[in-house]
Structures are given as structure tokens and as C-alpha cells.
């Protein structure tokens, strides 16, 4: 389905057959329906008034146009179809209608169809499809028939009306040389009919004509009829219709002659109201290019129109800015206010952006909560000023139906022509800038530059290696001791992920973990690290007797928030190694609480209730809040290396670390200092009351074999 809500195959068929009318239309439609629903045969037939006989008016037979023919319905699937209104026989039609020998001759085993019923409730035709094998999708076939049955019915009705009327008029002319029309036919006709004599003077109109144009017969009698379009294909014209306003009407004009080589005896003009059909067609066209929710252009339409504009801008040496907006925390708006109100927020924001930046028609909805627009003839400096003003407007005056909160937005910009000469390049670079702005903490604006491009290329480079080689080939664990500062004894060790270089590349854990988080590989990474680290802990305990040593592992917020039964998976891995949750400490950064506080609370409580000790990692480096350590079930607080590195020289760093330790004690948390590189740092931390530490002073991270050797040579507690 496309964004308009219609299957693109529907739109293609409608476009391909729209230029045809009458039997040409029906035959062209049959060919395309056969392809659309994968049928070997498609037939469109008319029924006689007794609904006992049928006449093929159009069809498709295994690559060829069907020939006109008549046949009785008795003992055929068409009889069942005419009776039921719609039916389907899947792989059993020959068994159900053994007397219909044509089915066997045609190797037909399946049959599906629908009845064409006019507004008077009369069954006037059938649409059916025949298959040599099983019907691939009966519901799909029925939906296709339903979609096109109205137009097929209209063409058949028009054909029958014109044929019947022409025959009647010729017969009447032959009898008395005057234009007389059966009032019964005129009154029953659904379309407007006008009759003019050989001098092109209007002689009569039917009630449908009077109703269509809100006019009486007396008002048009004797008027001159333009016959320049006689015997040409139908056209759509707009007519005033009194109180009904203007109507879109399909008209066709035919000349009635007693003999082919004689001048017309009179003229008949048919009027069929196509107003609603044309309106629907216009709406369909609008939906194919615009987002129905906001009234903005779809992205592809926007890009096509922007490319056209950029050609002019390039020729005239003009500038512009491609700007992408993302509404911050839109997921929460959806959750708290509902999708309907969230849609209104997007719509109101889009209209506010369009008006503020005077984007006119060059604005589109490029994502669920993302808006893109093109600003003409503005510099980057002017943009920064405009963004500040727009933020103020959104903060102070933004409103949307049903929404009582406030919003912020993040934006990324790309300059034309500096950052791209085509719409697609500007889109790509603006998206990279937007992504960078989101990573910077949202409610920010970032302009694309080459550093962003290099970061993106670096991201793709790492992802390419991970995709090609796999997590197992590229990532491996190393281990670093966590020691008690008071006794300097080993208490635990942390498993850290490292990049296995095959070509002397240096890729930091921060880089490849971020790639994994953004590409869906983080669960695979986390499971690998947890699986190998717990297996290593089992080996350490079994072979070295270090039963008091615990394992500490980092887990990504993205991994915990993916709602994938992570606690159950971890417990299963531990059980397979003869370990329990009490043997493992889980390190989590505060980003987890920032991204989804409520879900984070539920998951952390579940982990804690199952025995896992939880550590808040890198405390103080982001948006740390005392609410985190008060509300969430943490047992340990890890002091980031950036605070530890200068404590022996910088009084402010010393005071900050002391404050963090005191805060941890207030909440009964064990403190672990990271990045300890000197004995002096270790001694200071011990005096401040820090419980544990890790860092190069004790030893660098080691691979499994080296760390095992190190542990085997380390004195056990009590020795």
C-alpha cells in the first residue's frame, strides 16, 4: 500500500484504462485484471432480462481477447454466481458443474466472480475469473472486482442504454419520420438525455436531464444544440446546475440516420453526472502527492519539486537551506495523549514551521514526527536567528487540539549549494545533521559539515565490517580487576568489549557499541559478551577456586529497552554455567533512565528482584540526578575516570569525588572508582571512603588467557 491508502497496482490499472470507453475499456480492463489477480481467463458478460442467458461483451483468454458469444447459464458456475451475487470455487469447479464441458476443455479448476447490479436492483452482468490451478488469493480477487465493478457497470449501462435508445429511435423514424421517443425509456434512464431534430433544435429532454441541471424542459425547448462533437468519444464538461452548483458531466452525442449515407434525422445527447467520480479522482491524485493528515507533500513529491526548483536556483545563482525537524519525545506524546492527538501535534507543528519559515508549498512530512522544508534565499546566520525565534514561538504559543503539554524540537540543516546540489543529497546531509543533533541531547540545531560526513562514513565503515564478519569475528572480551581499596584484594572483574583488528585499525568500544545500538546488533553483542564472560567466570571459580570473585558486565540501555525478556535470557545463561544472579553485577549508564524512565524502572526492579546487583556507571558525566539513585534499585555507584584523573592535583576534582562518595554512602551504595592509574590516587580514594577501584595502577585489561594467568599468580584472600 502507498501512503494514500490505495494499492499502487490499483492506481496503475486505473491510469492505464482511463483513456478508453465502451467495449475498448472493458477489453483493456480484462487484460489488466487477469494480470492483477493472476487469472488465465477473465470475462465480462451481460445478462438478459430473465437472467437465464449471458452474452460475452469483453474478456481475456490466455493471452488473447475473448470473442463475443452467447450461452445459457444453466448448469454453469455463472448460474450459481447470478443466484448468489458472488462466489468462488477453488480447485473443485469441474466437480461442482460436471455438465459444463467447457471447463474441462479449458483446463479450468477454479472460478470466482461477482454480479453487476444496477441502481434499480437489476442483475445486468457478471465479472468472473477462471484459473487452471488454485486461486492465489480469493479475498484479493474479490476486492479487485469490487473496486472496478462500479466503472464496469457504468460502461455496460451506458452501452445498453445507447444501443436500446438508438434502436428505438431508428424504428420510430422509419415509421413516421418524426422524432418520438418512448417515454418509458426516457423516464427510466439514469442519465440525462436530450433530443434535437435535424435542424439541431432541442425537442425534448428527460427527467434525469431536468434533475441534473435543475432546469425544466420548457426552458430549453427550441434552443440550438451544438453538434460539432457528434459521434466522438465522451468528454467531461463542467456545467452550471442551478442550486446544485457546478457539475462535472460526461457527455456524448450521436446522430440517428435512417440510412448511413443520409444526413441525420435527429441527434441524441447523453449526460452522465461524474461529479463525485471526478471528485474522488481528484482526491486520489491529491493523496498520491500529499499526506492526508497534514496536507503536506509526500517526501518523494517534495524531492521531485525541489529538484526542479534547484535547477532554477543554480541557474540564477541563488541560495537555500534544506531543514529537517524532529519533534522531541514524540513517542511519549503518543503514549500519554493518544495517536489522534499526536497527529494533531505533528499537523500544528508542520503548519507553524511552514508559516514561520515561509516555506510555501515546499514542505513535506518526511517521517512520523519529522518535517522537512526548503527555505529560499537565506544564509546560515539568518537561519540561526530564525531558529531561535521559532523555538520561542513553539515554547510560548504552540497549541494543538487535545494537547495540553509543551514540545521541543531538534533540527538539522544543509545549505544549497555548499552541502549538496540535488534534493536527495540535501536530504541525506540534513538527515545526518539531524541525527547528530539528536545525539547531542535534542532541542538543538546542527548544520551539516564535513566532520558529520566523516562520522557517518566511519559509522558505515564499522557497520560494514560487523555485517560482513559478524560480532563473533570482530568483538571479544577483555578483563580488568576490581579490587578492595582497604585490603587491595581482588573482589571482582569487569568484562570489557574490544575490537579484533585484522588490518591494524583502532576502533574504540564507544564507536562500535554505538553502531550496534543503531543497527539492531546490540542484543547480539550483549549476548556474546555475557555468554563468554560468564563461561570465563565459571572457569575461574572451578580451576582457581576464586569463589568469592564476581563478574561485572556493561549492558546497553538499548538492549534493556528492547522488551526482549532480557532477565530470563540472562538467568538461562547463568544456569547453564552453574552460576546465579548473585554472581553478576550489571553496569548501566544513566541514559537508560533518560530515554524511558518508567520502562527502565520496571526492568531494573525485575533484575534486582531476581538477584542481580545493579551499578550506575559513569555517574556524574551526563544528566545525573539524585532521583536516579533514590528511585532505582542500584547497589553500586561507579565514579567516572574523568573525576579521578586529577584528584591528587586539582582540589575541585577532589571535592567533587568526595561529594559523590558521601552521596553514595547516604543511599547505602558501594562506590567503585574507575581509571585509577597511580598509587597516590588509590590512597586518596581509600581515605575518602571509596570502597573499590579499578584501573591501570592495578593492571591493564587483559584477554582471557592472560587474565587467567594473572589470577592464578595472584595471592588468594588470607594468604
Describe the structure.
- Keywords: Hydrolase, Methyltransferase, Transferase.
- GO terms for molecular function: protein-glutamate methylesterase activity; protein-glutamate O-methyltransferase activity.
- Its EC number is 2.1.1.80, 3.1.1.61.
- It comes from Pseudoteredinibacter isoporae.
- 45% of the residues lie in helices and 22% in strands.
- It is of the alpha/beta class.
- The strands form four sheets. It has an eight-stranded mixed beta barrel with strand order 19-20-21-22-23-24-25-26, surrounded by four helices.
CATH topology of the largest domain: TIM Barrel
How is the quaternary structure best described? single chain
CATH class categorisation of the largest domain: Alpha Beta
Spans of at least 5 consecutive residues with low confidence:
none
Protein name: Two-component system CheB/CheR fusion protein
InterPro entries: Biofilm_reg_signaling, EAL_dom, EAL_sf, GGDEF_dom, Nucleotide_cyclase, PAS, PAS-like_dom_sf, PAS_fold
Domain EAL: 455-715
EC number: 2.1.1.80, 3.1.1.61
Amino acid at each position: 500500500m502507498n501512503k494514500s491508502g490505495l494499492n499502487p497496482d490499483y492506481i496503475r490499472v486505473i491510469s492505464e484504462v482511463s483513456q478508453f470507453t465502451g467495449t475498448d475499456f472493458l477489453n483493456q480492463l480484462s487484460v489488466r485484471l487477469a494480470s492483477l489477480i493472476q487469472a488465465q481467463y477473465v470475462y465480462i458478460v451481460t445478462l438478459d432480462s430473465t437472467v437465464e442467458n449471458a452474452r460475452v461483451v469483453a474478456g481475456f483468454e490466455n493471452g488473447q481477447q475473448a470473442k463475443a458469444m452467447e450461452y445459457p447459464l444453466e448448469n454453469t458456475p455463472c448460474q450459481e454466481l447470478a443466484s448468489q451475487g458472488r462466489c468462488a470455487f477453488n480447485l473443485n469447479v469441474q466437480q461442482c458443474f460436471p455438465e459444463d464441458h467447457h471447463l474441462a476443455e479449458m483446463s479450468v479448476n477454479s472460478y470466482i466472480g461477482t454480479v453487476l447490479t444496477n441502481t434499480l436492483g437489476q442483475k445486468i452482468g457478471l465479472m468472473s475469473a477462471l484459473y487452471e490451478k488454485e486461486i492465489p488469493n480469493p479475498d484479493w480477487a474479490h476486492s479487485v472486482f469490487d473496486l472496478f465493478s462500479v466503472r464496469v457497470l457504468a460502461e455496460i449501462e451506458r452501452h445498453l442504454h445507447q444501443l436500446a435508445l438508438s434502436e428505438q429511435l431508428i424504428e420510430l423514424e422509419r415509421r413516421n419520420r418524426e422524432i418520438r421517443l418512448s417515454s418509458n425509456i426516457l423516464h427510466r434512464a439514469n442519465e440525462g438525455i436530450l433530443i434535437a431534430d435535424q435542424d439541431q433544435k432541442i425537442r425534448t429532454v428527460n427527467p434525469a436531464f431536468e434533475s441534473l441541471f435543475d432546469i425544466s424542459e420548457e426552458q430549453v425547448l427550441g434552443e440550438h444544440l451544438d453538434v460539432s462533437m457528434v459521434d466522438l468519444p465522451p468528454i467531461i464538461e463542467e456545467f452550471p446546475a442551478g442550486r446544485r452548483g457546478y457539475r462535472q458531466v460526461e457527455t456524448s452525442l450521436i446522430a440517428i440516420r435512417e440510412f448511413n449515407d443520409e444526413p441525420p434525422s435527429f441527434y441524441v445527447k447523453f449526460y452522465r453526472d461524474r461529479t463525485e467520480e471526478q471528485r474522488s479522482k481528484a482526491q486520489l491524485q491529491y493523496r498520491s502527492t500529499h499526506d492526508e493528515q497534514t496536507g503536506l507533500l509526500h517526501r518523494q513529491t517534495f524531492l521531485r519539486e525541489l529538484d526542479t526548483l534547484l535547477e532554477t536556483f543554480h541557474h540564477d545563482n541563488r541560495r537555500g537551506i534544506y531543514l529537517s525537524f524532529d519533534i522531541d519525545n514524540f513517542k511519549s506524546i503518543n503514549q500519554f495523549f493518544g495517536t489522534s492527538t499526536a497527529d494533531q501535534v505533528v499537523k500544528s507543528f508542520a503548519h507553524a514551521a511552514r508559516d514561520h519559515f515561509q516555506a510555501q508549498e515546499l514542505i513535506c512530512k518526511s517521517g512520523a514526527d519529522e518535517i522537512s522544508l526548503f527555505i529560499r534565499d537565506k544564509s546560515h546566520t539568518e537561519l540561526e536567528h530564525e531558529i531561535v525565534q521559532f523555538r520561542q514561538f513553539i515554547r510560548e504559543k504552540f497549541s494543538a487540539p487535545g494537547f495540553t503539554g509543551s514540545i521541543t524540537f531538534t533540527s538539522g540543516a544543509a545549505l544549497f549549494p555548499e552541502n549538496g546540489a540535488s534534493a536527495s543529497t540535501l536530504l541525506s546531509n540534513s538527515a545526518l545533521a539531524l541525527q547528530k543533533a539528536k545525539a547531542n541531547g535534542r532541542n538543538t540545531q546542527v548544520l551539516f559539515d564535513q566532520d558529520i560526513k566523516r562520522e557517518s562514513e566511519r559509522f558505515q565503515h564499522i557497520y560494514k565490517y560487523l555485517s560482513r564478519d559478524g560480532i563473533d569475528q570482530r568483538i571479544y572480551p577483555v578483563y580488568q580487576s576490581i579490587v578492595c581499596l582497604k585490603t587491595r584484594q581482588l573482589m571482582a572483574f569487569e568484562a570489557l568489549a574490544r575490537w579484533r583488528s585484522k588490518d591494524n585499525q583502532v576502533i574504540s568500544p564507544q564507536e562500535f557499541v554505538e553502531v550496534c545500538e543503531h543497527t539492531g546488533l546490540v542484543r547480539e553483542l550483549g549476548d556474546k559478551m555475557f555468554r563468554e564472560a560468564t563461561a570465563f567466570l565459571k572457569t575461574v571459580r572451578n580451576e582457581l577456586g576464586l569463589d568469592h570473585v564476581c563478574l561485572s558486565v556493561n549492558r546497553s540501555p538499548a538492549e534493556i529497552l528492547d522488551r526482549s525478556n532480557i532477565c530470563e535470557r540472562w538467568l538461562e545463561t547463568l544456569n547453564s554455567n552453574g552460576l546465579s544472579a548473585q554472581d553478576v553485577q550489571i553496569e548501566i549508564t544513566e541514559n537508560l533512565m533518560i530515554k524511558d524512565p518508567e520502562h527502565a524502572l520496571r526492568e531494573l526492579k525485575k533484575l534486582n528482584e531476581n538477584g542481580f546487583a545493579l551499578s550506575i556507571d559513569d555517574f556524574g558525566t551526563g544528566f545525573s540526578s539524585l532521583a536516579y539513585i533514590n528511585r532505582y534499585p542500584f547497589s553500586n555507584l561507579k565514579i567516572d575516570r574523568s573525576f579521578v584523573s586529577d584528584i591528587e592535583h586539582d582540589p575541585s576534582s577532589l571535592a567533587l569525588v568526595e561529594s559523590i562518595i558521601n552521596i553514595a554512602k547516604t543511599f547505602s551504595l558501594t562506590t567503585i572508582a574507575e581509571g585509577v592509574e597511580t598509587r597516590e590516587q588509590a590512597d586518596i580514594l581509600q581515605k575518602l571512603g571509596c570502597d573499590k577501584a579499578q584501573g591501570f595502577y592495578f593492571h591493564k585489561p587483559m584477554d582471557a588467557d592472560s587474565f587467567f594467568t594473572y589470577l592464578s599468580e595472584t595471592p588468594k584472600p588470607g594468604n
